Please model this.
Amino acid sequence: MKLIVGLGNPGNEYRKTRHNAGFLLIDRLCEKLHVELDKNKCRAQYGFYFHSGEKIILAKPQTYMNLSGEAVSSLMNFYDLDSEDLIVIHDDLDLPLGKLRLRKQGSSGGQKGMGNIIDHLKTQMIKRIRIGISHDHNIETKDYVLGKFSKEEWEVFDKAIDKAADAIIYSFDHDFDEVMSKFN
Model:
């Protein structure tokens, strides 16, 4: 069993904001895999996809970004998963818009949702896909990440989430080292 978690904030006001990159990727995966997020448990909205007999959980924590670890650890405990079964997707201010960075471990890099997951799971050995949202230093960080993409930015970002969705799907049949090699 695998758990794929996209980080973001629940609510329509956050729907297409930069900080919701993880939610947007889960939405794209649901479209591609024909999955409905029809379960609400463990402070998360999630659904199942079955691939070659393996259950894959696609999830969006409903705790707001900074408390994502509460939902992730609850899901992992409920389904008896280990950290190697987890892939987390989140935005990254330090990457250019649309750039993907896949890693098997590491610090939060200042991303508070990822930091909360690391704190709850007590490990940095967590696979992740970071999606670049760039950073406009003329705008306060909070306002920037909670802002919506311009039309031009969305075109670049949309291609990135499509590529990231392909990376997740590729990970169903391949070791994460191979996924990193192909999609980084």
User: Anything to note?
Assistant: The chain has one domain: 2-183. The two ends are 24 Å apart (CA to CA). The chain is about 35% helix and 20% strand. Residues 2-183 form a domain with the Rossmann fold fold (CATH 3.40.50.1470).
